[in-house]
Give the backbone structure.
Amino acid sequence: MNSPLSPVVSEAAFAVTLVLLILAPLAIAGVALINAGLGRSRSAAQALLGNVAIFAVAAIVFVLVGATFTGLSDGPSHLFHLAGKSWNWLGEGSFFLAGFSTASPQSQLALLYEFLAVALAALIPWGSGADRLRLAAGCAVAAVLAALVFPLFAHWVWAGGWLAQLGTNFGLGSGFLDPGGAATVHVLGGLSAVAVVWVTGSRRGKFPKEGFSTAMPGHNAAYILFGCLIALVGWLAFNLAGQLLWLHAPLTALPLTAINTVLAASGALAATFTVTRIRFGKPDASLCANGWLAGLVASSASAALVSPLPALFIGVVAGVITPLLVELLELAVSIDDPSGAISAHAVSGLWGLAAAGIFAGASGQFLAQLIGIAASLGLILPLVYLLFWLLNRAVPFRVDADGERIGMDLHELGGGAYPEFVIHRDESYR
Amino acid sequence: MKYAGLLVMPAGFFLCVAALVLFPAPASRTAFVFCGLAVEALGLVVAVRGHIEPRGDAN
């Protein structure tokens, strides 16, 4: 059992954090629009309903079960002792948020942050399974993430777990730092997307026997790009609230973090715009959206820890990596990821975490970030793959062939998102 | 192969944790952590290669 004390939060900081967290769902709205826009028109209603349903399922399951395992930074937790150190590995909160109203202001805000963050994390694999992942399976994936995987990792990083204590236990800077949720939300969500794509398989006709893979472009570039702008507001809210909650920064530190967030996204967009302009002769709208998102994800790890020039550099690198990796994953290793979540969330998140260690400047910080990266990659990916593989036995992930042919809207909902439009024949079925 | 790769990845993670416990000196600790990450990367490559779908397969 372990009960560290959390710092006292001023009334002004409490109010600012609360307002920011009220704006944070805009990140979820932005990702939902991007997910829907990058899928096909005949699955658009199912995609958007799925986004809302997953939000709801993740919120309910986190309150019922997940918050217990996440625990509070000033609450009790499970420890084991190894090599003379105590390893805090699991929270020991009360079920159903019992006693939440009497918890410290810091703890209440922390739980609210995690409550919203888990919904965003659960939404990421939904986009990767677009056009063939069943609604029930998407909700089941969200439930597993909200009940088990997210709480475990969030406790390690945000609630005084062993990753957060790398600084005090092993002298590694300030311990693993992830103020905006790059690891707990985006890397977790991106690696879950990998597992979902592996378990579900690719869309029919995506990888024909001969020739290149079939292009299946998103159906609505306006959704995608408007989603990017909405997501920016939510990202600013998550990054700034995270800086107040997890780094205990003063309010005067917030403007610089906001500038760094926008700089990272802008640098990433400019880089993706340039890369796709060189690669294809014209800039690609959906890849530019992925680049913007990748910049935001990289900023989640680093915006609160670095100065503006490194923030811009981190964004530019994320923006270069993302379009190239989207292409590589599709062409070289046959990964059908319609939303590009694996590149934009998982890989950019890992890059942001490493870059935060490089540019933060504190001694041992880089090594702490590497340990955190090792934990997310080495434990979380095999864990979610195993859980989803088992889940697929109980709740089949993939829709049947006929359902995929007529579209998820008609198959699962009985009606399309655009009933007045004629849906053209899909040339990918050959 | 796909399962072998996924089993190798936690081994890389435990190497990183072992580095924390076994090596107090920063240089050797960092080197060992990089070795752990390399093992994870190797496992990931094997898992990714194992999951490549045969072309033309209708799922």
Notes: The radius of gyration of chain B is 15 Å. Residues 2-50 of chain B form one domain. Helices of chain B lie at 2-22, 26-50.
